[in-house]
Amino acid sequence: MSTKGGVAARVYALCEPLAEELGLAVWDVQYQKEGSEWVLRIYIDKEGGVGIDDCVAMSHALDPVLDREDPVPQEYVLEVSSPGLNRKLTRPEHFEAYMDEPVRVRLIRPLEEGTRELEGLLIGYEDGKLELQLDEETGVTLEKKELAWVCALDDIDL
């Protein structure tokens, strides 16, 4: 088992070539404890959307690689799915792909006036700083460390 990077980073590296062979892209990999179980969640994507057959194919391709490489230190549940319509943006390339698109941001701590969620156009992301245009007159810059999550809002016109 490799010791460089966390479990999610190691599994992401294992997933990328497999996904490419299947005509898919890896959107994200999460490894977290949920209740008493560890869950390894692989989010895949492709032009036109992901179906159940894509998830099954990725799971079947990944199982023997995970068994051979053993990147996960304990028992876990493997889930392969689509990131969904309101997908969470977690990597720099996600923010780049959704530039000038509507997003929803959830803050770890509320702003002074008590607001904890914001919606606006993503107009910048650099060096861990996210810029949102909330309306025609109001913009805000937030540090990544202030964010609980950011998700795309593909179905909203701001």
TrEMBL record:
Keywords: Cytoplasm, Ribosome biogenesis
Superkingdom classification of source: Bacteria
Descriptive protein name: Ribosome maturation factor RimP
Signal peptide (from-to): none
Protein family according to the UniProt entry: Belongs to the RimP family.
Compartment(s) of residence: Cytoplasm
Pfam families xref list: RimP_N
Species per Swiss-Prot/TrEMBL record: Acutalibacter muris
